[in-house]
């Protein structure tokens, strides 16, 4: 079986393993589109995939296949049966290894990686640098749509990977857990308002997920830089952490970075600010 060295694999590693019969590559591209009211929405990146993708990659529609259709909240983690069906449709099964990538700053790929991890599938990794680094290095690109191999995916739900609003509310009191706001400093302070209520969940620290990425090549920064990023934010690796953002996507990139540092006691608040700010009684801070 193809062995993934870490939850993050290099473009060199992927180039050396292209075509491995047990390797599934998922293109998780999701694009941001402007809306009539001046805000933005997300859409599947199927058109970008059709124009070119890593050879053998299967398109993963994160917004459709990896969201709980029975939950009115946006992009909530699917239940075990739904994740099983989604993964088997993509050719992901118990005997496969998976590499995921996107065309942005890894947050959508990290969301898929975390979804797999939440359901007990640990043979997955994010492509470091994603599409940006792959194409900058003149790696091979294809427009062919690969055949999906039959697969049997056995979910093993890990409930500690995802927390609910009630768990976060408990964490706002005291210092038993670190609440990590994964969006920009301007959104953290409330200077920039994207959600219905400005600011952050009470008792949070700010570790922007965008700051994990080296803008020169689109790859994650080295471990020393990642550790410094979290230490500067006030994240202690001696106590459990909960990451959150606007909708539970960028938070997964912080969860990946913490995992790379050997920290396993981390969870993602799935509802994030989309759910939290809808409740006028949920405590928030600004400034």
From TrEMBL:
GO molecular function annotation: transferase activity
InterPro entries on file: Rhodanese-like_dom (IPR001763), Rhodanese-like_dom_sf (IPR036873), TST/MPST-like (IPR045078)
UniProt KW Protease keyword: no
EC nos: 2.8.1.-
Residues in Rhodanese domain copies: 19-143, 173-285
PROSITE patterns: RHODANESE_3
Keyword Repeat: yes
Cited Gene3D superfamilies: Rhodanese-like domain (3.40.250.10)
Annotated keywords: Repeat, Transferase
SUPFAM superfamilies (alphabetical): Rhodanese/Cell cycle control phosphatase
Protein name, per record: Sulfurtransferase
Organism: Hyphococcus aureus
Taxonomic lineage: Bacteria, Pseudomonadati, Pseudomonadota, Alphaproteobacteria, Parvularculales
């Amino acid at each position: 079986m193809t062995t993934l060295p870490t939850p993050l694999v290099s473009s060199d590693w992927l180039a050396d393993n292209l075509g491995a019969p047990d390797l599934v590559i998922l293109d998780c591209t999701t694009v941001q589109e402007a809306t009539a009211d001046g805000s933005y929405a997300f859409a599947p990146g199927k058109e970008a995939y059709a124009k070119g993708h890593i050879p053998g990659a299967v398109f993963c529609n994160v917004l459709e296949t990896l969201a709980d259709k029975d939950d009115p909240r946006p992009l909530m983690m699917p239940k075990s049966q739904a994740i099983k069906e989604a993964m088997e449709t993509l050719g992901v099964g118990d005997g496969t290894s998976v590499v995921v990538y996107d065309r942005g700053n890894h947050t959508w790929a990290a969301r898929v990686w975390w979804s797999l991890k939440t359901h007990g599938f640990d043979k997955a990794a994010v492509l470091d640098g994603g599409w940006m680094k792959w194409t900058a290095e003149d790696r091979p690109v294809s427009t062919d749509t690969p055949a999906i191999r039959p697969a049997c995916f056995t979910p093993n739900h890990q409930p500690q990977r995802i927390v609910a609003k009630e768990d976060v509310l408990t964490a706002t009191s005291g210092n038993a857990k670190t609440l990590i706001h994964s969006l920009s400093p301007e959104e953290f302070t409330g200077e920039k308002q994207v959600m219905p209520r400005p600011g952050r969940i009470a008792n949070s620290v700010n570790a922007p997920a965008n700051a994990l990425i080296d803008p020169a090549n689109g790859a994650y920064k080295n471990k020393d830089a990642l550790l410094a990023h979290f230490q500067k934010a006030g994240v202690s690796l001696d106590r459990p952490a909960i990451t959150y953002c606007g909708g539970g996507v960028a938070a997964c990139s912080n969860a990946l970075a913490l995992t790379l540092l050997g920290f396993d006691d981390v969870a993602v608040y799935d509802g994030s600010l989309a759910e939290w700010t809808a409740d006028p009684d949920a405590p928030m801070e600004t400034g």
